[in-house]
Specification:
With about 550 residues, this protein is an alpha/beta fold. The chain folds into 3 domains: about 160 residues, Rossmann fold; about 220 residues, pyruvate-formate lyase- activating enzyme; about 120 residues, no CATH class. The strands form 5 sheets. The chain has a 6-stranded parallel beta sheet with strand order 3-2-4-5-6-8, with helices on both faces. Strands 9-12-13-14-15-16 form a 6-stranded parallel beta sheet, sandwiched between helices. Helix 5 links the parallel strand 5 and strand 6. It is globular and about 80 Å long. The chain binds cobalamin and iron/sulfur cluster (SF4). Cobalamin binds next to helix 1, strand 4 and strand 5. The site of iron/sulfur cluster has 10 residues, from loops.
Length: about 550
């Protein structure tokens, strides 16, 4: 921002609401997807208020986090009770609808309070968004430097002239790190987001990080010192938001070694990795992590070379398969592999082939995503050629393409939902083996998904016991499998989960079938132990939350 953007003028509109000694001048707020997710972006802004704003600005700033399930009017009540002069709001795809209502109410009640927006959802296409129209200022891109500067100007003048401000992107060494802003409550109850690098050198067109051009690393000594301080304060759940953790090997080695040196029964670390590059030095460290301590999110997205090329995703599929196989078989890491349905030119058949290939590699979870058109992403260049129709409402999900009609897209939406419920829940390990083989796992699950929808007309609110009965009905009556075999698997799954209800199909002789097959029970126990090693429900929630991005 140059000086020419300012008018020398003060805004005294807040006179009717005089600030008291306790009122913060600035409130930084956001609506998280769930309480367990702590906002790293806002903590960066807070940490840089003095450095890039002016001395004392941080002490005049308070952080307030809400969740999207809260009513906007209550959020507004909490914000107004603080009587700030500036409210900065972090806007993301998951909160833009709710936050638009928050801003609308704020502007009705206290038009004098300056509302500043920032975050990925308002960094592009600002002109078409209601929330941007309602706000006083929008900072696009990084906010660490520009938000403090803007606040200084809003509080002390000269008044900023520009509504849309392109966020400055300084070298990372110029930023104060935010980790001391995680509170004791954050450490105890929430997933701690940390960032050893920003940006991504790849160009996958559906992804916002494709606009970054490169990845920038934080100075490692300083970063590790912050991790050490967090660990000493009791932090045990770390999620790295680095887009490509495993690219800079020296860097990744040091981070993995850091956690290995501090291994504890409750330590949990999550990384996102690119699948086709796994250096031997990394493997040598990965194998040393005990079960339950390490989780990898491996982006596969598509195994279709034509589609990969079309969306500018560079990926060596053979190397990817080899690395995935290694991770699953040789390490104890929990592996989540991501696939996206609905990419331009993908057909049901080509996707099914990719799904089956991935399923054969046996990652612990397949995260089944449906393509979304994120604001700013270059995937829009295919809109016309592939007749890509997206839902205009968040999260901008693909509705149909030239190769997938709407009806098929709906079927696959349900498949994704049921897959989450049945496969990724980890509650049906043995029954899944019956359901997904022989032949195409995708084909079998799609047939089950279609049947489940026709039978129940529901995609949500299934009791666990009801699912057991439904699986029993499908496997015996639709697939024609022997009742004893199905009961054995379902009994072992049900008992292994620790649930103590009484599904109808098992009620004749609960436990009897499992006793007939101790091998199945042992296998289930081993699987449960390896896949989860959940020390508590909280641990399970942390693992699930970490994998949700
Ligand atoms: C953590 C995370 C989540 C968490 C939610 C966290 C929360 N607080 O509730 C979970 C796991 C739930 C999640 C889910 C999803 N996510 Co997500 N997620 C992330 C992730 C990995 C990290 C965010 C982060 O902390 N970044 C680091 C900080 C430093 O960067 P930042 O948040 O962008 O903040 C900077 C600026 O944006 C700006 N800024 C931020 N706030 C403010 C406020 C003001 C006032 C100002 C001025 C500036 C400003 O300044 C900050 C510092 O420079 C990002 C990817 C990434 N690495 O960023 C994706 C990302 C945010 N997610 C994305 C998407 C698409 C999704 C999903 C739709 C994915 C899906 N399932 O299909 C879902 C939606 C969930 C839902 N319920 O609908 C997109 C966002 C697109 C968008 N327009 O918002 C991202 C960018 C991934 C990507 N590369 O495409 N996600
Ligand atoms: S999908 Fe992953 S590799 Fe591709 S641009 Fe996004 S962050 Fe980078």
């Amino acid at each position: 921002m140059g000086k020419s953007f300012y008018l020398v003028e003060f805004d005294n509109a807040a006179m009717d609401f005089p600030q008291t000694a306790d009122s913060p001048a600035i409130v930084l707020a956001t609506l998280n997807a769930k309480y367990i997710h702590a906002s790293l972006g806002l903590r960066y802004l807070l940490a840089n208020m003095d450095l890039h704003g002016c001395a004392g600005l941080r002490a005049r700033t308070q952080l307030r986090e809400f969740v999207i399930q809260q009513r906007p009017v209550q959020i507004v009540e909490s914000l107004l009770a603080l009587n700030p002069r500036v409210i900065g709001l972090g806007i993301y795809i998951w909160n833009v609808v709710e936050t638009t209502q928050v801003v609308r109410l704020l502007k009705i009640l206290r038009p004098d309070i300056k509302v500043v927006l920032g975050g990925p959802e308002v960094s592009f296409e600002t002109e078409s968004q209601e929330i941007c129209r309602l706000a006083d200022h929008v900072v696009t891109g990084w906010g660490d430097v520009s938000f403090p500067k803007l606040c200084r100007a809003l509080l002390d003048g000269p008044r900023p002239l520009m509504k849309i401000i392109q966020g400055e992107q300084p070298p990372l060494e110029a930023l104060a790190l935010p980790y001391t802003d995680y509170t004791a409550e954050d450490l105890a109850k929430r997933l701690l987001y940390v960032e050893a690098s920003r940006g991504c050198p790849f160009k996958c067109e559906f992804c916002l990080s494709s606009l970054d051009k490169t990845a920038w690393a934080f100075e490692l000594d300083g970063f590790m010192a912050e991790m050490d301080a967090l660990y000493r304060r009791g932090a045990r759940n770390f999620k790295f938001v680095d887009r490509t953790f495993n690219l800079k090997v020296d860097f990744s080695v040091r981070i993995l070694q850091f956690f290995l040196d501090r291994m504890a029964p409750d330590l949990f670390v999550h990384f996102e990795v690119v699948p086709d590059s796994l250096h031997e030095r990394l493997k040598a460290l990965i194998v040393q992590f005990p079960a339950g301590s390490l989780q990898f999110e491996v982006g596969i997205q598509s195994f279709n070379p034509e589609v990969q090329q079309r969306i500018s995703r560079r990926q060596d599929n053979d190397k990817t398969a080899e690395n995935l196989r290694w991770l699953v078989n040789e390490s104890q890491a929990h592996v989540h592999a991501d696939l996206i349905f609905g990419l331009p030119g993908e057909t049901l058949e080509s996707f099914a082939a990719g799904f089956d290939r991935l399923h054969d590699l046996a990652p612990h979870e397949i995260q089944f995503g449906i393509l979304k058109r994120l604001r700013g992403t270059p995937i829009t260049r295919h809109t016309v050629d592939f007749a890509m129709a997206y839902d205009p409402q968040t999260p901008y999900t693909i509705l149909q393409t030239s190769t997938i009609d709407f009806t098929t897209m709906q079927r696959i939406q349900r498949f994704a939902r049921y897959w989450e419920m049945i496969a990724n829940s980890g509650r049906f390990a043995l029954a899944l083996q019956l359901l997904l083989s022989p032949g195409s796992a995708f084909g079998h699950f799609l047939a089950f998904s279609d049947w489940l929808w026709q039978t129940t007309g529901k995609t949500h609110e299934f009791a666990y016991e009801k699912l057991v009965d439904l699986l029993y009905a499908h496997l015996t009556s639709m697939r024609g499998l022997a009742q004893g075999e199905v009961l054995t698997a379902l009994t072992a799954d049900y008992q292994g989960s620790g649930a103590r209800g009484r599904p109808q199909c098992l009620s004749t002789a609960p436990g009897a079938a499992a006793k007939e097959n101790p091998q199945a029970v042992a296998q289930e126990n081993r699987r449960a132990e390896r896949q989860f090693r959940h020390l508590s429900q909280h641990r399970e929630a942390i693992q699930k939350a970490a994998a949700a991005a």
